[in-house]
Amino acid sequence: MDFRQSSVRNCGLHMCPLSNDQTIHEESFDDLLKSALELTGIGAWSCDLRTERLSWTPAVFDIFGLPRDKSVERGDAVAMYAEPSRLMLEQLRSAAIANRTSFALEARIVRPDGTNRWIRLKAGTKVENGRAVTLYGMKQDITAERQHWEQLRRLAEHDALTGLANRTHFQARFLDRSDGSEMFAPPGALALFDLDNLGEINRRWGLAAGDACLIAFARRLLAAYADRTFTARLGGGKFAMVLGNGANEPLLETRARDRFSHLGEPVFWNGVPVPLSVFVGIVFVRRFQDHEAEAVYAQADLALQTAKRKEGRSPRVMASTFNGGKHPAIGLESPAYPIPGRTKPDMLPLSPRETEALRHMSRGCTIDEIAHEMEVSRHTVRNFIRRVYQKLEVDTRVEAVQLAYQNGIL
Question: NCBIfam families of this UniProt entry (predicted)?
């Protein structure tokens, strides 16, 4: 039913008819509708495709930060769109005109005063004699909405205590990257860090002291490489840092130790120096393909475990190089470096397929390579690995392979 013809108004819980002298005339209704739309940041627009002449309601001028009393050329309006948004707009616009259809777009614009705004644009086509002659629709300022969702996204992807990316974000940005991914440039190095005495700090000085040490450690990580990095807290006292190609260094442990030397300095808590026990495993990447991210991570994890067996003051650093392709089998070092107290004669038995997945893991195969060899999906492989970790009661690939060798599973 047309609002203008219904002559009703909302009175609390009831719909009450308007008297004759209260009837909303068409002119006043249009003014009311225009005012309501402007209140929500929505404006109407049209473009005559024969002349490219624009027609805007006042709200659209306000969205673009332009004076209402001046006409706007389409070229000038389009120039205010940020480059990616402008390219998408022109592509969708051309397709809508050619096919006489509609489209929608969320775009970023830059106002004349330099401020950035996000708008939602919806467009339809008016057709005469089989040809599109007019584009028309609405534009809405959704900057506040975008900021709200960006804040929620950031909360979902970042660790609340340190402000670094969380493990889920690291998984998506690095481990789950696919061939040709544009989410992250090829890494120059991957470093894994373990604040090994976090539990002791929590027990001796309290959880607040432990939190203070985690925050200070996160800041030190960010200071180690000021740019070209992606840093994440993986959980507890474990952190990861992906360095860009420009940060690739020669394979010199002394260089890596110098870079991270400040990580092991005590953190002062209520005037008391709290010592930090820090281990670092870093892999410098010479050649890399996206599907090798798991292999790089496994090698960095192995370097971290090796650093824990070294002697010396904190931080203890172990560095290696990843040359692409298969890296040496992780399990080869297991007999020489057994994990104390980890032999488990009563552990849950692995299924044949879980054992097969573990065998591929010991050879340094990536998730994609295991999926190909076992003729299953990546998701199925991850389920195999998750069950292996649960049954062996371990958290990493290195631990799983080492424990499997010690117990005769491999």
Answer: GGDEF, sensory_box
Shortest CA distance to 358 belongs to which of 391, 320, 322?
Answer: 391
More confident residue, 115 or 10: 115
Domain 161-322 has CATH 3.30.830.10: no
Q: How many other CB atoms sit within 10 Å of the CB of residue 354?
A: 20
Domain boundaries, the chain: 30-145, 161-322, 352-407
CA atoms within 13 A on the CB side of 26: 1
**Distance, CA of 408 to CA of 400 (rounded, Å):** 12
Helix (H), strand (E) counts: the chain: 15, 14
Nearest CA among 110, 124, 118, 44 for reference residue 76: 110
Determine the Cα–Cα distance for residues 185 and 229; give it in Å rounded to an integer: 10
Assigned CATH topology for domain 352-407: Arc Repressor Mutant, subunit A (1.10.10)
List pLDDT tens digits, range 73-116. Answer: 999 999 999 998 999 999 999 999 999 999 999 999 999 999 99
